[in-house]
Amino acid sequence: MTKHRYARGRVNLQRIQTDERLIRQYLLGELPEHEQIAAEARFFADDAFFEQLVAAEKELIGRYLRGDLSAEYRVRFQRRYLTVDYRRKLVESAMVESAMESLRLRGGSREAGSPVRVVQDRSWWWRRLLSRLRSFQLRSRR
Asked: How far apart are CA 84 and CA 77, in angstroms?
């Protein structure tokens, strides 16, 4: 029984590591198109996997803003996030959020007196999925 539990834990750890690698590759645009489509379908079908994606994206943006990415990943990030409007807005929102948190930690306050809450618009997921499905349908009809 213990051996089985250990094996199952090892399989779960391997799956988590695989998922993390898949998400990182997805976020940086490194997946082949068919794997990207499969990952997007999984994001919609599996809430926990989508939450992993959101957390990984926030972490990636934070690492970029802190300068914690290697030169290679920094270039990949810039190509993927700073050249597309909605992704650039995610980075800008994170910058504002980070600046506000720094100000709060230093004891400062905003002039308007109310906290800033940055809400990420995720409707782009639906638009992108619909676009991919349409292109897939067009290819399959040919």
From this structure: 11
DSSP 31: S
How many angstroms separate the Cα of 119 from the Cα of each of 80, 89, 93, 116, 122?
A: 21, 11, 8, 10, 9
Cα separation, 11 vs 109, in Å, equals 48
Give the residue among 77, 80, 79, 83 at the shortest CA–CA distance from 63: 77
Q: How far apart are CA 80 and CA 89, in angstroms?
A: 12
Q: Which residue do the tokens 């810039």 mark?
A: 78
Q: What is the Cα–Cα distance from 39 to 94, expressed in whole angstroms?
A: 24
Q: What is the DSSP secondary-structure string of 69-124?
A: S-HHHHHHHHHHHSSSHHHHHHHHHHHHHHHHHHHHHTT---SS-S--------HH
pTM over 0.90: no
pLDDT in tens, 115-127: 444 445 555 555 6
Closest CA to 82 of 30, 5, 29, 132: 29
Both tokens of 45, joined, read 């079908």
